[in-house]
Write a structure and sequence with these properties.
Elements: H1 10-25, E1 49-56, H2 63-82, E2 90-97, H3 102-115, E3 120-122, H4 127-131, H5 134-139, E4 144-145, E5 163-164, H6 170-184, E6 190-195, H7 198-211, E7 215-221, H8 229-238, E8 242-246, H9 249-261, E9 267-270, H10 277-287, E10 306-309, H11 320-332, H12 340-359, H13 365-374, E11 385-386, E12 394-395, E13 397-404, E14 408-417, E15 426-427
Parallel strand pairs: 1-2, 1-3, 3-4, 4-5, 6-7, 6-8, 8-9, 9-10
Antiparallel strand pairs: 10-13, 11-12, 13-14, 14-15
């Protein structure tokens, strides 16, 4: 779901390798003398609990946007535990704060694996952060389940057989966006606003398969620089009538505010990573304090915004999963208001719990992997989910929604699935299980 730079290079890569090599020497007993990984173990599992770990930004500049992920997962695990757990075991969910700093991620991952002896890593957040520990987790035999990012690296079974993606990857999502724009905004000029890292690179790879000739501007931002005046001015100058924003929430909001300040009113098409309308409203309210726009309702800036997504939306009063997640969060949540970012974490928790239930009482790391790969998972989403021996891609596509001022969310295109290469985009019909039908706790 989340921002990050592709890989770690130079000195940073050397330091990462040395740090993880050092931790491997202290091992948790999962790697034998010959280097083979032993998965037939139940590390972190007792008769009454199973320890699950995650690295998340609990503090620092990334925390306002990403803290709800772990808050949502914790609320769902609290609910599951209150129902009796999973095969009599409560989920012991341990979240370590890495501040979205890759060096800190190494330290907290070492602690989770070597000291806490977690059974599995769940939802490790961010591409640069999780990318720095993916080798370590696989080498130590720790199942690496559902990283919180749309990076392509999570679907590489040959190199990382224990890592299983969850979020629709950036390229698949962008392909569906691109086709939607060509079909619904024909002959209109298109501009890209994107984060200057893997998000932007992978998104353009998908968009360009459908929009290359229509693109009149490609404007990137650096996540450390919050002034988007030059980028928005260039998008307006270029005549872009549709702006595709492959941005994290703060920069989606900043872009919209800057455009409004110069009376530039393009059609915004926003990627799922920046399309949580509750988070955007909070940011818009914050960013307009003590400005001429202070009295403008935050959601007025969002009116008409098109968003690609693969999750049930809490704005949708008719979605039973949205209603379910809202009710659970009202009971167990840490804040007053649920957002779609909370739902992200809650969905990860529900689907992981579904896997544990399907696994049965005899739980080992190997049995978890076998269970992941031997079922066709039907979770809260109406988008198909891939988790087979040769495909660890997670959600395989997106559907399109449009936000209307006042909180209404309309589904404007049903789910489409595709690959991350040049394959066709296909319509798909999946009927998700209801909360009552899905078996994810005792």
């Amino acid at each position: 779901m989340l921002r990050g730079r592709r890989g770690i290079t130079g000195t940073a890569a050397v330091l990462t390798a040395l740090a993880l090599a050092a931790t491997a020497c202290t091992g948790a007993g999962e790697v034998g003398d010959n280097g083979a990984v032993d998965l037939d173990v139940s590390t972190g599992v007792t008769d009454d609990s199973v320890i699950i770990g995650s690295h998340q930004p609990q503090t620092g500049p990334a925390a306002p946007g990403y803290l709800p992920v772990s808050q949502g997962a914790r609320a769902m695990f609290d609910h599951i535990n209150a129902q009796g757990g999973i095969h009599g075991r409560e989920i012991d969910y341990r979240v370590e704060d890495d501040g979205y700093d890759p060096a800190t991620t190494i330290d907290v991952t070492r602690q989770l694996v070597m000291e806490d002896e977690i059974f599995a890593m769940l939802g490790g957040l961010g591409t640069p952060t999780h990318g720095g520990v993916i080798d370590f987790l696989n080498e130590e035999g720790v199942p690496d389940i559902f990283p919180s990012s749309g990076a392509l690296a999570w679907n590489n079974p040959e190199e990382h057989p224990l890592t299983y993606g969850w979020q629709t990857d950036y390229t698949k999502e962008a392909k569906v966006q691109g086709q939607y724009i060509t079909e619904n905004f024909p002959d209109q000029d298109v501009g890209y606003l994107y984060q200057n890292d893997d998000i932007g690179e992978d998104s353009q790879a998908g968009l360009d398969q459908y929009l290359d000739e229509e693109v009149v501007a490609r404007e990137h931002y650096e996540s450390e620089v919050t002034d988007l005046s030059a980028q928005i001015a260039e998008l307006e100058r270029s005549g872009a009538e549709v702006v595709v924003c492959s941005c994290i929430p703060a920069f989606t909001a900043l872009g919209m505010l800057e455009a409004a300040s110069i009376d530039y009113d393009p059609q915004w098409v926003v990627a799922s990573i920046g399309g949580d309308t509750q988070t955007l409203q909070a940011l818009l309210s914050e960013f307009t304090e003590d400005t001429d726009a202070e009295d403008v309702p935050a959601d007025a800036f969002l009116d008409g915004t098109i968003i690609s997504t693969y999750m049930p939306r809490v704005e949708d009063d008719e979605d039973e999963w949205g209603q379910f997640f809202t009710a659970i969060y009202e009971e167990y949540g840490e804040t007053e208001t649920i957002t779609n970012t909370h739902v992200f974490g809650m969905m990860q928790a529900v689907m992981f719990a579904e896997v544990l239930m399907a696994n049965g009482e005899d739980l080992t790391r190997q049995s978890l992997i076998d269970t992941l790969e031997s079922h066709e998972w039907n979770g809260p989403s109406n988008v198909p989910f891939a988790s087979s021996d040769g495909d660890h891609g997670g959600h395989e596509g997106v559907f399109m929604v449009q936000y209307q001022e006042g909180g209404q969310i309309d589904v404007i295109q049903d789910p489409r699935v595709t690959d991350r290469e040049g394959g066709e985009i296909e319509e798909v019909s999946v009927e998700p299980l209801s909360p009552e039908e899905m078996v994810f706790h005792d």
